[in-house]
Hints:
By secondary structure, the protein is α/β, with parallel strands linked by helices. The chain has 10 helices and 9 strands. Helix 5 packs across helix 6. Zinc ion (ZN) is lined by residues 146, 156, 160, 162, 165, 167.
Amino acid sequence: xxxxxxxxxxxxxxxxxxxxxxxxxxxxxxxxxxxxxxxxxxxxxxxxxxxxxxxxxxxxxxxxxxxxxxxxxxxxxxxxxxxxxxxxxxxxxxxxxxxxxxxxxxxxxxxxxxxxxxxxxxxxxxxxxxxxxxxxxxxxxxxxxxxxxxxxxxxxxxxxxxxxxxxxxxxxxxxxxxxxxxxxxxxxxxxxxxxxxxxxxxxxxxxxxxxxxxxxxxxxxxxxxxxxxxxxxxxxxxxxxxxxxxxxxxxxxxxxxxxxxxxxxxxxxxxxxxxxxxxxxxxxxxxxxxxxxxxxxxxxxxxxxxxx
Length: 308
Ligand SMILES: [Zn+2]
């Protein structure tokens, strides 16, 4: 945790590539080493916050699954890291951390009720209700990427047994899948030419083609944006938030995605929930780290129990 992470002159967030460590033990050891290194340079480090891209049992500080990383079944990360560092540790889902960072310091600053989604390989969700993170009864909330927008849609990703979740239809993975199909169908488009040139048809390639004016790529982003808007209309009706914040790599598409998503939400949601502002996240790729750090700080200073 970097207590002065957001202050002028404070340290820049640092990250360790998870793929460099062969096991959970090795990665946790490296995390403890990084904390020890920071404590050698800063004397006001009070806690450690971990934002985990996967399933977290918040109350127990267990990690039950990490997307794309093996060996993380039911790992008591909070207690292991607390014993290695001698500091209180908070472990939360990375989308919850992103939502909290945007709520405290980003696009939702000063507001009380926030729906936040991260659009990447999957779609993560974080909820702030009445100024507090909402994690549900078992600590596994708020997985809004698994809201269903097409009951007969394609199978969802990873360990989700559902089909037609917004994650299955509007994530970066879904965008790339649609992009590959479109590139094959439209060989004369910029996307089709990129495919013929052997380039990988992924989110960044589709966004680059759309920005260069390729109508096929523009239509794809609009399609994914409208699908996202279907989910946002349900979330707006349910939570009546002050703002919806969208982050993650797919948001590099900016208004090419946001515009159609917003229009679909306006068309479908009840009044007045259909007026909710939909904003791009402000803190970028560091939002998860910043949120984990300030959640650890805030939940410890508020007296909440975050470690044994
Ligand atoms: Zn799902």
